[in-house]
Write a structure and sequence with these properties.
Layout (H helix, E strand, L loop, with lengths): L56 H4 L18 H5 L8 H6 L3 E3 L5 H9 L3 E3 L3
Parallel strand pairs: 1-2
């Protein structure tokens, strides 16, 4: 087998169907669009969310919520971060025994006290 002898699989390359080109093609006259109606006309189709004149769902349901501008990003500890510690097993007790510095991660008062008791510190970003 060589690059110049490669061919696509049999039947995988079909010619696209040309519609509206005579009755012998099988898709002549109405070109698969049926007779009359909005979808049969050129350029005729409803916009997304249109329900035929009925009040659309997005207008029937009330608006809810908003995007808070003061929301703080919550940091996450990834597996990559844990791999840098070089411990055979990582669980809560192990993390509370070694000195860990956490940057930009919020913690409860109890968690903060436990981290500082183990010799670690919590650096909060402003």
């Amino acid at each position: 087998m060589q690059l110049n002898t490669l061919k696509p699989a049999e039947g995988s390359k079909k010619n696209r169907r040309r519609v509206g080109r005579g009755i012998g093609s099988g898709l002549g006259k109405t070109a698969g669009r049926g007779h009359k109606g909005q979808k049969s006309r050129s350029g005729g189709f409803h916009k997304v969310g249109f329900e035929g004149g009925q009040m659309p769902m997005y207008r029937r349901l009330p608006k809810r919520g908003f995007v808070s501008l003061t929301r703080r990003h919550v940091g996450q500890i990834t597996l990559n971060d844990l791999a840098k510690i070089n411990l055979p097993e990582v669980d809560l007790l192990v993390l509370l025994k070694i000195a860990v510095t956490l940057k930009g991660i919020t913690a409860t008062a109890g968690a903060k006290a436990a981290i500082e008791a183990a010799g670690g510190k919590l650096v909060e970003l402003a």
